[in-house]
Amino acid sequence: MNSVEIMKSIEDSQMRENELKFNVGDTIRVSAMIKEGNRSRIQVFEGTVIKKQGTGARKTFTVRKNSNGVGVEKTWPMNSPLIEKIEVVRLGKARRAKLYYLRDRVGKRAKVKEIVR
């Protein structure tokens, strides 16, 4: 076995069983485990997905929200064991893969159009 096959087998063992289905532009609610000292709790972060990148075990996604007038972005690995669940709040219509232009916008202009089901 060469080193590429070994790395592939290690990455496959770290993959999440059920793939999380959401796209760039969707508004999602991420429930993540936060450890503070010897206690742990679940914290919810709700915002718009501005990018997804990577493949396999290295796949990540970035969520952006405005909190008290300040933009906050968090990036999580897709296969992180700290993520309890991800709920899709609303589906967004994005015409590009990375929504970096939302960083410069505030208020209603920072919204992504919703897909009507």
Report the biggest beta sheet as strand number plus sense, adding barrel if it closes: 5 strands, antiparallel
Structural class determined from secondary elements: mainly beta
> Strands across the major sheet, in which order?
4-3-2-1-5
Order of helices and strands: HEEEEE
Parts with pLDDT < 50 across at least 5 consecutive residues: none
Question: What's this, in brief?
Answer:
This protein is mainly beta. 9% of the residues lie in helices and 42% in strands. Strand 1 (27-36) and strand 2 (39-53) form a beta hairpin.
Helix/strand layout:
Layout: H1 3-13, E1 27-36, E2 39-53, E3 60-67, E4 70-77, E5 83-90
Account of the protein in words:
- Helices cover 9% and strands 42% of the residues.
- The chain has one helix at residues 3-13, and strands spanning 27-36, 39-53, 60-67, 70-77, 83-90.
- The relative contact order is 0.23.
- The termini are far apart.
- It contains one helix and five strands.
- A hairpin with a 6-residue loop joins β2 (39-53) and β3 (60-67).
- With 117 residues, the chain is mainly beta.
- The chain has a five-stranded antiparallel β-sheet with strand order 4-3-2-1-5, with no helix packed on it.
